[in-house]
Amino acid sequence: MNIAVHQLLMPGSPTFTVLHLSDIHIDFSYTPGSQTECTQPLCCREGEPAPGRAGAGFWGDLHSCDIPYWTAEKILQYAAALEKVDFIYYTGDLPPHNVWNQSRTQQLYSLNKINQLLAKTFPNKTFYSAVGNHEAAPCNLFPTPNVRSDNISWLYEVLAESWIKLGLPPNTRESIERGGFYTTVIRPGLRLISLNMNYCSAENFWLFINSTDPLGQLQWMIDWLQYAEDNGEKVHIIGHIAPKQCLASFSWNFNKIVNRYENTIAGQFYGHTHNDEIVINYDEVDLQRPISMGYITPSLTTFSYLNPGYRVYKMDGYYPGSSYWVLDHRTVIMNLTATNMYNQTIFMDEYVARDAYQMENLFPNDWHELIERLKNDIDGPLMGLVYQYYTKSYANGAQCDHNCRRGLLCDFISFRSEDPHSCDSIPN
Ligand SMILES: [Zn+2]
């Protein structure tokens, strides 16, 4: 498979650029000067700071706090001005983390307000959206159609409307209104499949009634992957939660599907953890051969103890038959400490993947080789750098000891949840 890709990567072959925004989590009640350490899960909203303690920073705070509206606005304006992007992947989680005290009205307020900001900041750009776990009220709870006492159409109808306003073709409406997922062709020969991963998540308690492929989403995905294969299309999958964090049945079935369609799926893009992570899918028989790459793009929010950030992917392609692989990616962060100190937004290119990790390409095998290098030098500087980027440079490698590093590496290759052997290859 990689031979064919190399042939396509001749000098001068066309590329395109995708901005990925995830986990914006704007706190509309963010209050500069308020308590940064509080008894609730989300702080920086109210209360006087304890004597001798600083109050919440104007631009945000490196505690359990989400970002204020004006910070999100500046980050998006910076990206819109600087990045030459063709379109945008946008993988959910808009409301703040005041999960104990949310209503449908508040969730829809966040959704409408943030999507208006995006439309204003990126005029004429198409957003390919996916639904996060925080969009529901209460969060995480997405009833399936067999639940008679509750339904989620209040959310899906608004999502359909606002996603279409952000550029999706109107023919996606029916499937978004039905299940919060859809497919559409986004470039000649490139199909997007946007999944509603709330139907995979153990935090969605409705699934304990019946978790068997809710709304037939996985079967629907198989049908479209087969269609793509039959028609020579490549596919990008976007979703909020990476399958490795799903209920085991979903996660293992998902990996089976990726195995079957490894030549069609050109990339997977997720969010949810707020950290900068990867996940490599492996051949389910030999467990050695890397077959697909999932990228977990870091969050805009600071929640918790993270700098705000976004990701830009450079991809191969633009015509039918292109590989549509990720060729490289660059992560941009806002240095929140400096921003608060100088009261001026300070951004930096945190790193560019191929350069920082000394990789020839970003194909699954290249990431596999990086993992091998890291395994052989777990306590070395490169693994320290991986941890630093994992926290969007809030922390550095010295703050992640041997066990922490092992855990991180293990996570990167755990493509199926609850697999007791997924970390066997990582030395003690
Ligand atoms: Zn989130």
From TrEMBL:
GO terms for molecular function: acid sphingomyelin phosphodiesterase activity; metal ion binding. GO terms for cellular component: extracellular space; lysosome; membrane. One of its GO terms (biological process) is sphingomyelin catabolic process. CDD domains: MPP_ASMase. Keywords: Glycoprotein, Hydrolase, Metal-binding, Secreted, Signal, Zinc. Pfam families: ASMase_C, Metallophos. Its cofactor is Zn(2+). InterPro entries: ASM_C (IPR045473), ASMase/PPN1_MPP (IPR041805), Calcineurin-like_PHP (IPR004843), Metallo-depent_PP-like (IPR029052). Its main location: secreted. Residues 305-413 form the Sphingomyelin phosphodiesterase C-terminal domain. The keyword Transmembrane does not apply. It is found in: Secreted. Residues 17-275 form the Calcineurin-like phosphoesterase domain. Belongs to the acid sphingomyelinase family. This is Sphingomyelin phosphodiesterase.
